[in-house]
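Sat 14:20. Reprocessing the chain from the morning session after the first attempt stalled halfway. Input below, unchanged.
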Amino acid sequence: MKENQKEFKALAKKIRQRRKQMGWSQQVLAERAGISRGYLSKIETAGEGSSFSIDILFSLSKALECKPAELLTQD
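Finished this time. Tokens:
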């Protein structure tokens, strides 16, 4: 198992939940964040190789209209 897999899964869940709260498809969020839908899908499933840059985290948080910390905070 990847060293930070638990944290990536929690982050993926937060991104997916927030996107659904906004009523958006993966395609809509991907377009707003400037990434491909396929890449967003990999992020949201937290699969192997799902790590991504802080730049992408900032883009996703802006698109989701929240602070990056809200996505990183674990419940």
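The chain has one domain: 5-62.
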